[in-house]
User: Fold these one by one.
Assistant:
Number 1:
Amino acid sequence: MRLEGEHRRSIARTADGKGARILDQRRLPWEIVWVELRSAADAERAIREMWTRGAPLIGATSAYGFAMALAEDGSDAALDAAYHLLAEARPTAVNLRWALDEVAKAVRPLPAAMRGEAAFARADAICDEDVALNRAIGAHGLQLLRDLHARNPGRTLNILTHCNPGWLATVDYGTATASIYLAQDEGLPVHVWVDETRPRNQGALLTAFELAGHGVPHTVIADNTGGLLMQRGEVDLVIVGTDRVTANGDVCNKIGTYLKALAAHDNGVPFYVALPYTTFDPMTPTGADVPIEERDPDELALLSGPGANGQTTVRVTASPAYNPAFDVTPARLVTGFITERGLIAPAALSS
Ligand SMILES: CSC[C@@H](O)[C@@H](O)C(=O)COP(=O)(O)O
């Protein structure tokens, strides 16, 4: 199953302009189901329950949710209530608060009756900008891939990624995947090792779906496999996305990213983080200061998927489970940040 078109747009305004349309990512890759969000409460639920996810897309969804609330009631009280409702939907991705602040900044000076339309316009602009940012990140990452390939032109370039840093996590292109899509489009031989990304399997379900849709050769691996592949020289570089990079360059991303960075460091494999400026958080000093989301242990204890008679769920442990959703990779393990402005060394952030 695939979605066609250069611009796949994982979020857009509904036809009547009063809501937002998202893909229900809980059902991918088995079914493509678009859902209409009609209120801030709908948007908050979709973010909290991960119908929609990925740092930039969470930001875009919250912006539309905020706009829906303001279209209904543009008063200061309604503005503050919607801001807080949405800001608390998920704690780790800084893009959520960034997008809400952008909308609030745009509408606060306006009379209540004008705030709804202005908020929708700002949300649209946030989405358009996200596409442009990812496209620019992709262009810089592509140059990096070309340079690495030129060192060993006879070989396929093996890239390892974690979680879903793709167009499903953004409005289009993705952060880490943008350069991979551009490389594939220009005929550079690439192959992607896709970490399954337990417990929610964003790699096995979402990244693999995206790469297949774009015709990129890829292989899903268990989360524990990357170290072995790196020792064997079968990974040329790692590119991941991020939910927040703090002032000192620490990288908060999906749980398991840190272990990949350690293995990459030990094996001399370059470890890159792709992100737009909206994911930098200069107000938070270090990764230790980032709130790490803890999710329902049943996400770990239960496995679900399509069975012979519809959706099947099985329990895979009889013991208590613990499910922190993100970890922190220290800046010292990061080779570079791939941004819309080019490559940035972690040391450059704190200098
Ligand atoms: C745009 S990519 C960066 C991250 O948002 C992505 O890798 C990630 O960790 C997403 O986590 P999720 O919990 O699925 O929202």
Note: The radius of gyration is 20 Å.
Number 2:
Amino acid sequence: MRGNDPNRKGARMQDILPFAKLQGLGNDFILLDGLAKGIDLSPGQIAHMCDRHFGIGADGVIVVRPSPQPGCAAYMHYVNADGTPAQMCGNGVRCFAKFLVDNGYVPAANGKLVADTPAGPRPIAFEVDAAGMLTRATVDMGRPVLDPALVPVDAEPDAVALFGEPFAGALSLDSPWGPFAFACVSMGNPHAVCFLDDVDLDVFDVDTIGAFFESHPAFPEKANVEFAVVGPHGIAMRVYERGCGETLACGTGACATAVAACLTGRATRETDVLLRGGALHIRWADDGHVMMTGPAAESFRGTVSLRERNPA
Ligand SMILES: N[C@@H](CCC[C@H](N)C(=O)O)C(=O)O
């Protein structure tokens, strides 16, 4: 307990923060309550908290802040494990909703709330257990952005050739492992979705190939890279996330993959995306909004002392 003792020599109260650790399908986050007092962390402090050996360990940090938007419960400030901010996080926003409900900021009986995010307001309908704790949520993830100029992609799109159907964000990129075809979709944050045939996704080298494309010059803001195989029970998908590497699940990535699969004739508008951490149900509604349904759970709570991660 000595490490958590705010009175120990050298420790300052403002350097010790309570946190909750939550996860959605194993995509895990540290949630910090910045509703009453401002919490501003440096990228090095975030990276230290997310470090799985020297810190708490997580794919990202979510600071819950007051929202200036009327009708929104709070603002989700999301930062990746490497300290870089992202516009949206699908698994994170369900955990954010759980944090608000479980801590009494939103009455469980409401069954819904609106999350304010850098990508815009995201309405959420949620289910609770007998104790009033959120278990599952459906998030209106908004309309996918398919214009390559807005994804953003810095390369000539290869519209029809790759996918057989018109697809504005279609892109073929060379690599040491041969050419890969991507469908570029933004869900507020950039995604490059690659459909693979005749590949055992379980042994596919997501770490190496994903890292190569995450930082490819075609993606000036980097990209989350999804590798997908369409099967009889849904779309199996693994993801190399911008700013954190391979994760067990990515909500925005599942939405981008489902949209790309639909646009290229590989799936219908409603499908399951089967991730390493479990399944997300994705429905691309007729009004163009993508609805994502999945669980959220708390792992543990604690306090953390703020430290900067030492440069590698
Ligand atoms: N895991 C998230 C996405 C988190 C942000 C992403 N790494 C980015 O930089 O855009 C999800 O569930 O959507």
Note: The domain at 2-138+296-305 is CATH 3.10.310.10 (Diaminopimelate Epimerase; Chain A, domain 1).
Number 3:
Amino acid sequence: MSTFILRNVRPFGGDAVDIAVTDGLITEIGTGLSGEEVVDGGGHLVLPGLVDLHTHLREPGREDAETVRTGSQAAALGGFTCVHAMANTDPVADTAGVVEQVYRLGVEHGYCDVQPVGAVTVGLAGERLAELGAMATSAAGVRVFSDDGKCVSDAVLMRRALEYVKAFDGVIAQHAQEPRLTEGAQMNEGPLSGELGLTGWPAVAEEAIIARDVLLAEHVGSRLHVCHLSTRGSVEIVRWAKSRGIDVTAEVTPHHLLLTDDLVRSYDPIYKVNPPLRSPDDVQAVREGLADGTIDIVATDHAPHPMEDKECEWNVAAFGMLGLETALSVVQQTMVDTGAIGWERVAEAMSAAPARIGRVSGHGRPLAVGEPANLVVYDPTARRTVEAAASASLSRNTPYAGLELPGRVVATFLRGRATVLDGALFSEGALS
Ligand SMILES: NC(=O)N[C@@H](CC(=O)O)C(=O)O
């Protein structure tokens, strides 16, 4: 039996306690606990390990951008104990074989649990359904299905997918982007896209798909999840859908909580992302949506790209930005330090709710005796300047480089084993 004491930590920022961990489980929470091994929590905040419903790990196929190993290292450094790996790999994760491969790589590396997302359609081509049932019953136990990067734009296919996954309590996570309305789109459509001469990506292209899909979900009585919602209109549609009792959940990314489309003036593709950075009014609306629960979760949409795909002309650059290592800091800055939400709600939006939506067990659980010791120790009083080169990710496309952000992940524990200690990766299990 291995026992250690995580001494002097503040659950959700409350009073300081000690947490005793034995064989990966929380066995006691109190004060003055003693044990052979002690990890000093420094009086910092402790939250349940974070869960990301939307991560691009790029393996198989683009191991030059990220691997399961490097992406899950970045996740651990960001305080995550479980990430959902998106299906837009090469080959696409549209078979039991590919999702099992990704799942096993996560287990092998051991920095966090990697829960594969299955593609909705074969090859993300939007033409016929992938083998959803086989992926659900595989060793990977897939519950989240998404063509993310592409929209399931065919209404009949979307309806069938929603109906199909009911059998195993799955959810369709939709990348809401009407393809015809966004042909060649490069940035948020507005006065600025006209001024900069870049093709616009109008809010209505997102909102039209969300409106259609909540109605489809209602019609067939299934679960819908909306990926990276980014506009005021989208928040209003989801709010309306929830008020009707439709089983819809939604996510917002850290970058849509902080950054706005005026950054595109630089023509620096570091700010090129899908959906695009929106207006200050949209940012205000997604913050309000997250605060009032219309938006259920924060998901990173960690989208690593190699230098050659980002350091080029805007029009040919890839869409996407890193997110795992900065997510908690950005949420602190935009939502906690502004007084919009407290740490309990952060834990709900970044741990409990994503675990529930993804139907993963053992994550997103309360800080309580008998629960798995998936924990993140976080110092919200620290400040740090983001350094792209310091990232554990194989890619460098963080939009926050050089920016000072609040907070620092001090330690992350996966089932009682430290994956991060003193803010650095801890791979050899002295505490395991
Ligand atoms: N979110 C992004 O900007 N990029 C995603 C896919 C996508 O949604 O386009 C990626 O895989 O790089």
Note: The longest helix spans residues 203-220.
